[in-house]
Amino acid sequence: MTVSLRRRLAPLPRAAWRYVRRAPGTFVWLGILLATSIVVHRLSPGAERHVLGSRSTNLHHLQEDPLRVLVTSAFWLAGGGWPLYFVVYNLFHVPAERWLGTLRWLAVVVIAHVGATYLSEGVLYWAIQHGHAPESAAFTLDVGVSYGLAGVVAVLTYRIAKPWRFVYLAGVLVFFGVPLLSSPNFTDVGHFTAVLIGLACYPIVRGRPGVWDPVAAVRSLRRRAHRPTAAAVRQSTDSPVTE
């Protein structure tokens, strides 16, 4: 490794730590999800079903031990996929936590997770009672972080400057609404409910500073891209002038 490359890489660890420190809740959550995903990956299929099933927020567990499953279900991913969630968390949870602060961000996550879980399972209970779903659906697997994520995705609508806010909102409603209209199941109900809950969290985010304008952000990136580096400036000033 050349001296020049070492100098360029030297600030990276400190910059990465500053990045993580500004959204501690998100990265603690990601760390726990990584650990539980590794555990699930090493289990046999039968053991995996048992571990995830015991943490499922299904109708049976919500009746028997609701607090335990509502908490533990948020720290397991059915089927893995941690790298994808790492990307998605950085796209949505990180900016939301930085904007709202950890406590307000966590409040949105919890409200969306709990509210969407109970409403979606309530719809499933209605379907079982009216013969639209088998009684075994009361034991269905329902773990994961997607309801809290959907709520945060929705609440970020208020972070974006107008008129782009409405474009973003339309995209969110289409993304979560199309599955609900095409072939709905209780998780689709839960996701769309979480979006509505996230939008209803406006009193939590009202007055928070720092509206993000995507056009201004692109212009800023262009200016930085065309700005000469310090090394280039030094090279131009050190070069001899010839006539």
Automatic annotation (TrEMBL):
Stretches that traverse the bilayer: 27-47, 67-92, 104-127, 139-158, 165-183
A Pfam family: Rhomboid_2
Extent of the signal sequence: none
InterPro entries, A to Z: Rhomboid_2
Keyword tags: Membrane, Transmembrane, Transmembrane helix
This protein's record includes keyword Magnesium: no
Name of this chain's protein: Membrane associated serine protease, rhomboid family
